[in-house]
Amino acid sequence: MDDTPNKTSEGSFSTGPPSNFKQIEAFKTITMMLSMLSHSTSIDVHDNLNKEEITDLTIQDPFDRQETRMLDAFAQLAVGEYDVAALATNRVSTDGITLRIISCVVDFPTERSLSATTPSKDLETNVLTKNCLPDVVSSPQVLKPSRPEGAEGMKPLEYMEKLNIRWIRPSLAHHLWTLSNVLTGPDGQHDIRFWSDLLPNLWRYMAAISYKKIAHRFGNEYHSLPYIIALKTVTDVLPTLPPPIDRFSNNNSSDVHFLSDFVLPYAESLQPETLLKLTTKFPNLIAKAVGMKKSPSQQRCQLYTDATRTEFHQLLLELLELFQTALEALTSMDEEVANSSDNGAKQFADNVRNVDLIGYALLRIAKGRAFRMHLESIESYLSLNDPRIRAGQASSECIEAFPALQPVRSSDSDGMEATKLLSQSYVDWLRWVLDQFDAIETLVTYMTSSRFPYRSISLSLLAVPKTTDTFLPWLQLFSGNEFIPALTGINPVFGSLTNESILLFLEKGIDEDKGAQHAKILSLELESHPTIENLRKLTMITYLGIGTKANTILEKIGDSCIISDSIRDEMKAIRKLFNKLPTREQFFCDLAKMTTFKGTVHCEACLASLLPAFTEHLTPQDLEYYKDINIFADMQGFGRVIGLSAPSCPSCAIYLQMLASMSGSPSEIITRGNHGVISACSLPAWTPDRIVKAMNTSLGLLLRQGLISLMDQETDCIWD
Known about the structure:
The protein is mostly helical.
């Protein structure tokens, strides 16, 4: 492979030290291979806000903890329909009035039609209005979102109200403009009237912005559906629910709001048209709500009792069912088509309203004391269908595509001590599904406290170049010791392992598992083109029951040659049989089809590498890698805390630590924590070569360990 970059169409630097480029290409290969070994490599999950398990990364400073929570919440709202956003803020406002926030989101849709001679003004207009990052962005830029078209002459809240009536999905930049401006009160004031006007509209707006992401989480077959199924099973198994167990002495403010905001309106029926149509009857819960309204002393009443527990369970199940229905209704609609007519716009708005109302009710339940009591009561029955087992069965493809599915949460907003109980996983699951709504409450709590001295919010967008789809071939990765350190591991079978011996193992494995690779290619072809001809190609494969399944489907089709929808679904489902492949065969199948880099450079890595906490300590040699970057002045004042809309990936967590340690910075870059799955990712193109090499050494050692573990696994399959 040539040492110099040969692709600049996706925003890579056109010039730069060859060693830096080739080392980054090697890093891509390492992370791709590690993502294929997700079940063979052990990565520690860190929640840096968890004081129950103190580590070197635990955030101790109260100001840092507060800023981390606030920025995480803001990132949840700012991310829009994208996967992850990273935010930083000015730690100390220069004017004492304005809270400056910078948001980094990578992988904008690329505008291929722009030429390399596009003027910078057109570039900025394109990014801010068309919601895409042109090919010509070759270095980071700080952009200021402008007022959206259609918002002229309107107050920000009026514009949000307009969108809630007739939805037009805003670009990312327009979303950031709307969000930052509605959170800035008139004349900088954030009084009760301001919040009473804003919150209903903000909830509705975020439901419209985020419903696709919420639906994706709620319907995930590994990390969500098993929880719903297990809760439904309790009703099927038990004629009556077990008595409640009260292990929680904390305040029950969320339960109180559930009664007053959701249950009580069903007793008063002042505006029945605004209520959800429920079939569950809950007279005892209504009596609780009415009694609480009549007597303020009952504000600390216990929602979950012998009288209410069955109603509570049935109401929870119906709310989950209605939530799924509302999300499915929204995701099945074409937004542009729906909002092109008055009737379609109303239908879309009604579905968003349902997601909003049900989401609020479920969040009250998730954060409440009653839900925990209920889960403790039925835990022995829930354990019969432990959803955590299903989550552990997620395929490597699923894990790589959605690495941040497992929430990192150590305690809830009420400060309850985190546990490792099954019941706690249900709380984490439901709050994870409702992250966007939960973030609204976290942010509002902060902004209504004395800890928020600001009168306005100014939000900027950090646009960063995309990485290329090239990578270092794995044959070169293990040829010599340039990229992977010459460390040895002792294995009872293979003895002393060099890079050369690992390379031989990989070459042999690729050759031996050609049958698996060919079968998987055929199944993927059938999944995308479910035809009888493609189905017949699989009939001779005996492993995993693929051939038997294919012949069974052919018998159902018979002489009619008619492929019904159900038959088509069965044909597509054959590909899922490969999720049961042993780790070794799965790895070599994935390695064989590793032809392009499909990962990305993560937003937290880009943002961290441009923060003053790191750049102010660059050496003259390091600065050579930053020679195309001219935004240092724009980044001044931003602190070392990075908020994320999802936990950081492990490789980025290591990268952030190295930025501080290898630059000699006295301050570490802080994030909430990391999940436990390495996904295919790159590094910012301006990362100094010495840091890239250190990353390759660190992750290269982890890759060696994973491959050595793989070498221990003997395959037990025979391919035709």
